[in-house]
């Protein structure tokens, strides 16, 4: 089941590492930070914005 993320919330969130913008991957339920190459999980509609919880992305 995929959960929608409020677009207003997404517009306010930034990567805690780079302070750059995030992209929402609805299917994977992750917030992607292209600059940091990290994917932050979204659990039950709540973004988990902890670097230690993020998944490293392949370049």
Automatic annotation (TrEMBL):
<dbReference type="GO" id="GO:0005829">
    <property type="term" value="C:cytosol"/>
</dbReference>
<dbReference type="InterPro" id="IPR005651">
    <property type="entry name" value="Trm112-like"/>
</dbReference>
<dbReference type="Pfam" id="PF03966">
    <property type="entry name" value="Trm112p"/>
</dbReference>
<comment type="similarity">
    <text>Belongs to the UPF0434 family.</text>
</comment>
<protein>
    <recommendedName>
        <fullName>UPF0434 protein A0U93_10010</fullName>
    </recommendedName>
</protein>
């Amino acid at each position: 089941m995929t959960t929608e993320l409020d677009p207003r919330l997404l517009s306010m969130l930034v990567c805690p590492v780079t302070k750059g913008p995030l992209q929402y991957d609805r299917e994977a339920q992750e917030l992607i930070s292209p600059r940091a190459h990290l994917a932050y999980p979204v659990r039950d509609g709540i973004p988990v914005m902890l670097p230690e919880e993020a998944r490293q992305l392949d370049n």
